[in-house]
Design goal:
Order of helices and strands: HEEEEEHEEEEEEEEEHEEEEEEEEEEE
CATH class of the largest domain: Mainly Beta
Helix content: 10-25%
CATH architecture of the largest domain: Sandwich
CATH topology of the largest domain: Immunoglobulin-like
Strand content: 25-35%
Radius of gyration: 34 Å
Distance between the termini: 104 Å
Amino acid sequence: MQDINAMIVKHYKIRIMRNICNIMLSLACLTLFWACEKDEHPTALTPDSFVLNTPPYVSGIYDLKNTESILLTCSQPAYGFTAATTYRVQVATTKEFTDFVTLFSAFNKAKIEVSASEIAVALVGLLGVTDEADFPTEAFPVYIRLSAELSDGSRKVLSNIIELPKVKSYFALEPMTMPENMYIIGNVAGDWNWNSATVMVPVYGSDGKFWAVQYLGKSGNDNAEIKFNTAKAWNGSEFGMNADIDAASKTLAGISGDGNIVIGNPGWYIVVVTTEISGRDYIYHLQFIEPKVYLCGNAAGGVWGVGTDNVFTVPDISSGADAEFISPAFIGNALGESDGGVRACVVLNGQEWWHTEFMVFGTELIYRAKGDDQERVSGSAGQKLYINFTKGTGKIE
């Protein structure tokens, strides 16, 4: 009997020990799980600074005109964990860094190859030099530091400042680029208010080329007068009669004027601006052509682009700027994706018809411009496409 009782006691002791072990193991797992959960969402620290290393060959001359890039290295800011960091290079001509330029390029590694030409452009601005003859020919000291921030733009911090004692730079200017926007303003285009100016449409595949179907009727008792600019502002870069206007356009629209372009033959026109870069100058070529708008595809009987029977009716000039262009009645059904749908365009010299196409979606007129192929819109035989170019609206009915 005593042996049996001893066996029972021993059995329960074993079970109790097992339970204690299980409980301890569970607690350990929970602790580990909590620790892992906590590590998944670490709290970022904001360091006071971080180290930008002095390049090993800093005693030499950095010839920016004959160097592609300058290699910089740094330690990652002590954010408390390994974080995706964005670095930017800042340049100054004084060690106090009271006036500096942040270069355009950004980097996501602690090994940075900064463009020598970007530094050179920044130095022109920092030195305030406007003439190449005034730019220093001897090497001079340049000061550099880095800014760093987390990928979401937070926790910004600056590095120490390093000196490049001998930098030989040159009169470097920002590269000329084609304008991305173009606007028409006048007494019939926004009533000289830039907020209501006509937004011209970029031509697909042709940087710096724009077009618009524009009403150029009379304003009260005066002829239409217009100007252009790449920004919605009177900033000195607006142009009018100082642009290159071809002879055919001058004759068609009866163009005259001194500063503003005065339209002597009121009407609707397709206005085209083509930009040319010549040295450090922009040359703007202007065309005023007949307002021929074309219906395309099955709705036009299979015609794509220019045709004789697929031209929209141009509203009478007396109807004003808000009148609608109206297509011919659809010859056939245009069923969308299966056959190309209803399509419309203007056609410019040197361009394919689809470079300047557009369509009405719901009641909104949307241009393809530089975008991808537009979605397809269906129409039925007998319907027409109505477009108000001034309001940017339309309908199929």
